[in-house]
Amino acid sequence: MYYQPFAMMKRVKITVKRMARYEDLMAEYENPIQNACDMRLGQTFVVENCQRPEGMCQSAWETMLPFVKELSEGGGNFFDGWMRDPHSAMLSCNDGFRPVSFYVEVME
């Protein structure tokens, strides 16, 4: 029987690229909350072994996790050529009042 060890998981970098706020929607629909988002423009996180990095929003992480997992295992090319770099993805959290866009990429 041939034994093939598991491949090492690649590290993945997540960078906050854009942050938006929809004040009109917040005023009409949201119950005011403090510290709804602690992300900062340009902030980076490094993912090792598909573990949520410290300081990463839980909700954003849950949105990104399937993509992070695929990239860390060497996959990519999401949606047949969506990204110029097939080992990356541009993703957003699911906060409809203040969405944050993240660039997710494999670290070489």
Q: Could you characterize the architecture of this molecule?
A:
The chain is α+β, with helices and mostly antiparallel strands and 108 residues long. It has one domain (12-106). It is built from 2 helices and 4 strands. It has helices spanning 23-29, 58-72; strands spanning 12-19, 44-47, 88-92, 100-106. A 4-stranded antiparallel beta sheet has the order 2-1-4-3, with helices on one face. A hairpin with a 7-residue loop joins strand 3 and strand 4 (100-106). It is elongated. It starts with 11 loop residues before the first strand and ends with a strand. Mean pLDDT is 91; it is low at 1-5.
How many whole angstroms does the radius of gyration measure? Answer: 16 Å
Structural class: alpha+beta
The total tally of domains equals 1
Total DSSP E strands: 4
Mean pLDDT: 91
- Secondary-structure element pattern, one letter each: EHEHEE
Uncertain ranges: 1-5
Proportion of strand residues:
15-25%
Give the proportion of residues in helices. Answer: 10-25%
Distance between the termini: 32 Å
How do the strands line up in the largest sheet?
2-1-4-3
Note the main sheet.
Answer: 4 strands, antiparallel
Number of discrete helical segments: 2
Could you say which overall geometry the principal axes of the C-alpha atoms support? elongated
